[in-house]
Amino acid sequence: MKNIFKIVRKELDKIFKFPRTIFSTIILPGLILFVIYSIIGNLVSTEINKTEEHISIVHLINAPESLSFATESASELKIEFIESSLDNLSELQEEIKEGTVDAIVVYDENFDELISGKSEVPNVKVYYNSTENNSFTAYSKLYNLIEIQKANLLASLDIDPNIFIISPEELFDEKKAAGTFLAMLLPVLLVTFVFAGAMSIGSDAIAGEKERGTLATLLMAPLKRDEIILGKIVSTTIINICYAGSSFIGIIAALPFMKSLIDVEGAGISYNIIDYLSLFGIIIILSVFASAILLVTSTIAKTVKEATMYAMPIYMIVLLLPMLTMFSQNKAETLWLYIIPVYNCILGIKGVLSADINLLSYLLIIGSMIIYISLLVILLIRLFKQERVLFSK
């Protein structure tokens, strides 16, 4: 055990003895994420405020008297109504595509008379651009106004528009609702940073020693080879946890700037000590796995460049896995999904953040990952005992 600590200290000294590497390894990842998501949050809030304050430009064609209630209160609704003719419709449609006009409402001629006569059903067409926020907001306002107009017309015909009442009652787990955004975002970032850290450190841990010619010196020291490889795994894992922890802290620190993205009425993001420990446990086990599997590629490779080349396909697959669960709001229905390496950790992180994981699923994640890590450690020890692998030309 003492010799393992010597290897760990030797590897960690490469990082923690130099202010620049401490900054790039521990501070920079979290700082970058804090800045990025603070900017995103502020930009989204600004755009939402702009949309809310925007005066919608709406052209009315053949507007009936029954819509006068809306035109009279246009300023309160933040809508500017403009009377237009059907001859200008094609030109106005182009202006909607360009964004200079938000919406067009076209009523059939003699709209009110047709309704009073009950001879035919008149039509109302609303043109808008769903790709423009201002235009979509204008459509939402108009839809509500037309619904009010419909109710008023029914009442004028002695038809009760309220033949039934819809009373929506929202039922949701407040913690789960508030954590949905984090459950979608964090697994991607944590897995990315864990494997990015493992790739940058792991590629150099053994392949770098080969390339610099220091591996032979290390092997001649009074150390067992399994102690050397265990020390490499522990040191790489510690650095990976620093990467992941820094990114996690950076995102949490940026949450106040992202209220417009994650705000849920009546809910707030709050986790207890058990949640944090559960999340930390998954991060640790994922970091150990990433260290072990990328140390395998480093051991097989002859140079750092070659080790990075071997590690890249693993990194690309790992980047793809979080995307499979990113927009899914349901927990895994089959338990075997919780034993797929890396994917199970993504499900676990998402489950903890959204309060949607049980003890059995969590134990399957930890237990299966321990088995995979043990197999990788055995493989590493065997590789480290083969001279043709360590000193191949």
Structural class: mainly alpha
Total number of helices: 17
How large a portion of the residues is in β-strands, by DSSP E? Answer: 5-15%
Number of strands: 4
Tell me about the largest β-sheet: 4 strands, mixed
Major beta sheet, strand line-up = 2-1-3-4
Radius of gyration, in Å, reads: 31 Å
SSE topology string: HHEHHEHEHEHHHHHHHHHHH
Q: What percentage of residues falls in helices of 4 or more residues?
A: 55-70%
Whole-number count of domains: 2
Name the poorly predicted regions: none
What is the residue-mean pLDDT, rounded to a whole number?
Answer: 82
Overall body shape = elongated
Describe the protein.
- This protein has 393 residues and is mainly alpha-helical.
- The chain is built from 17 helices and four strands.
- It has a four-stranded mixed beta sheet with strand order 2-1-3-4, with helices on both faces.
- Helix 2 runs parallel beside helix 11, helix 8 packs antiparallel against helix 11 and helix 13 runs antiparallel to helix 14.
- The longest helix is centred in the first third of the chain and has 35 residues.
Task: Write the topology of this structure.
Layout: H1 2-16, H2 19-53, E1 56-61, H3 68-72, H4 74-77, E2 79-84, H5 89-98, E3 103-107, H6 111-117, E4 124-128, H7 133-156, H8 174-205, H9 207-212, H10 215-220, H11 225-254, H12 259-262, H13 273-300, H14 304-325, H15 343-353, H16 359-384, H17 387-390
